[in-house]
Structure formats: structure tokens, C-alpha cells
Amino acid sequence: AVPQAERLPRLRTGLLAARAAMRIAGGPGCSRHAPGANLSFACGFQDPSVKTSRSIASEDLFCEMLTWQMEELGDGNSREFAENNCLFQESLRAQQKDSAPRKGKSLVVEDLPVGWFVEGSGDSGWFSGVSRVVTLLGC
Known about the structure:
This protein has about 140 residues and is mainly alpha-helical. It is built from five helices and two strands. The chain has helices spanning about 5-25, 60-75, 80-85, 95-100, 130-135, and strands spanning about 105-110, 125. The model is unreliable at about 120-139 (pLDDT under 50).
């Protein structure tokens, strides 16, 4: 078993490696995303250089997350993008008819990878995968 103190750094490194592999596999369409060589995955509150209240310290990663939420879920507004120095393109916003069915979903324990469900976590068998990743990252 991996010692608790090593799990978080390994998870962060693994997420950045997976992101880099997807960026490369995505070809030219993914070239607008930061290369990843110098990205770090720290929580916004852990980095004193972050002047806004955001969950991820890396501006590039945070902007990618905001863009994904707008393109896939139709979420976000120009003010939030501007506050974080992110490019805002209203034309990329998902239409409600396409994004609404994807919102508010959860996974049942059986859908999660082994070891993700924590007994007594108050989830009663349901668990949001995103919140679990954020929890694992310590943000």
C-alpha cells in the first residue's frame, strides 16, 4: 500500500501526466491548452500569488476548467473569466438542450474505481466523482 503522505503528490502527478497525454493525442485541436511542462496542481488557497478566490492555483489549468464547464455544461460568465485572465468566447457555450441532461449526476459506488468509496462519508452509496477528486487533491 502507498503511504498516505505519498498519495496526494502521486495523484497530482498522475493527473497532470494524463492531461499531457490527452493534449498530445488531441493533436492541433488541443494546442490552445498549456503544454503542461511547468504546470503544478496546487489549490488556490495554498498559493499566495493567486489574487482571486479560485480552487486551482494554476491560471492555465483553472482557465481550462472554466472553458470545459462552459463548452460542456453551459456554465460560466464573462466576469469570472476576466477575473482569472481567461479567454471568454460566448460562441463556445453549450446549448441547454445538450448540457442539461449532464448536470447534477452522481455515480453509484459500483461505478467507482476500487478504493474510491469511503464508508461513513455521508454519501449513502452515492458519490460525486468530481468532489472526490477535489477532496483527494486537498482543495
